[in-house]
Amino acid sequence: MKVCVGLSGGVDSSVTALLLKQQGYDVFAMFMQNWNDASTTLHGDCEWEEDKFVAEMVARKIGIPFYFVDLSKTYRRKVVDYMFDEYSRGRTPNPDVLCNREIKFDAFLEVARKMGADMVATGHYCRKEETVGPDGEKLYRILEGVDPGKDQSYFLCQLSQEQLSKALFPIGGLLKKEVRAIAKEADLPSAEKKDSQGICFVGKVDLPTFLKQQLRSVEGNVVEVYDAFYSSDELYGRQCGIVRSILKDGFDGPLPMISNYISEDKCTPADDAHPFDDGRIGALGGGALALLSTPLDYSSITFETETYRSGKKHVRKTRYKENPFGKIAGRHEGAQFYTIGQRKGLNIGGHKDSLFVISTDIQSNTIYVGEGHRHKGLSRLCLHINPDEVHWIRPDLQMQPGQMRRYRVRIRYRQPLQDAVLLCREDGLYILFDSAQRGITAGQFAVWYASDDEMLGSGVISR
Q1: For the chain, what is the largest distance between any 2 Cα atoms, rounded to a whole number of angstroms?
Q2: How far apart are the C-alpha atoms of 342 and 298, rounded to whole Å?
Q3: Domain boundaries, the chain
Q4: Catalytic annotation on 240?
Q5: Active-site annotation holds for 200
Q6: From 4, 126, 157, 200, the catalytic residue
Q7: What pLDDT, in 10s, does the model give residues 26-82?
Q8: Which CATH architecture group holds 227-297+376-461?
């Protein structure tokens, strides 16, 4: 069998190529150039040129043919332009997921097939298995990588059965330290090379600077939201009422509306891991689910001005009247450059805890922020995915309207899997978590897994 390895110059793809060669496959390597604008990277040089040089040395060391393909036009059209469009609409895309779906296992796969490859292989930390569907047809499963700190299945959440049929992931059953050890023992030039960071194939960038290539910078207000807002907001009150209606009998803990987040890969144990009654969840109507998944609207926090006299000369000045629900805390350069949960780049001092973005309003060019991890605006229990943006890796397991299932879900890479209920309705898929989630963000991917580590499907969060 002839296999094309996407050789990036990193240690993971290098060991992928080495293992396949040792296993007797007819292997050749191909390096993808997907980005060539050095002005967007933080250090300003062409990362891809160095990576190509290392990849070519690795191929020579292993003893396999090496080729080069320029996919930069396709990458810009299918990944970068998509990024700009999503950010302009106030959504936060995941370019790495799109890169795998549109480039590595589409455009790159097509080139590899034309060169005679039967399969393509990458250095992703995930596993692939074959199974048989209900009609006896062959199906492919994606499972988490065995290294819990490096599992990359999330980034493959949009692959189809056709794409999986041509894919190999040789290092998914290894730990990262084992991959490093194999590379070192084989004296591969990439053995000590650091893992790449930043946007797939672009590198580490200052995101606002990158986005300013096409998105205009316009100053606007940063509004800090006080806790008092939530006690008077009608939508938040209705959401709390719905949550109370689905609690188990006898539940006497605090209403589970605040995330137990500590860091991206840690959270405090919940008092009750499953505080809700699944029967009551299943009885929720579409209106209740729609309310639960609706982000709060902070546009009602407005500010009036008043004049006053200041100093010995009683100079006439203007100031904003105090508002019990919030204050104008600063200025920003464009709401489209910020995302939910972000704390860096706000440049607002005078607070005990960090400020976090809790909402952005593109129309009014306003950013809303809250102080501390436990601010109510950072947490939500429910999200929604439009029907046309639900993707089942396992089409034989696809849910139908009216069905409800329990799965484990993550809404960002490296997040520990969260217990949740998926409810399929005519207007899309709702995901209701057992614990409130920090920073649910439109444009990101929600990905669900079975209890045996299999990734079953994904969807773009609409709200």
Answers
A1: 89
A2: 17
A3: 2-211, 227-297+376-461
A4: no
A5: yes
A6: 200
A7: 999 999 988 766 555 544 455 778 889 999 999 999 999 999 999 989 998 999 899
A8: Beta Barrel (2.40)
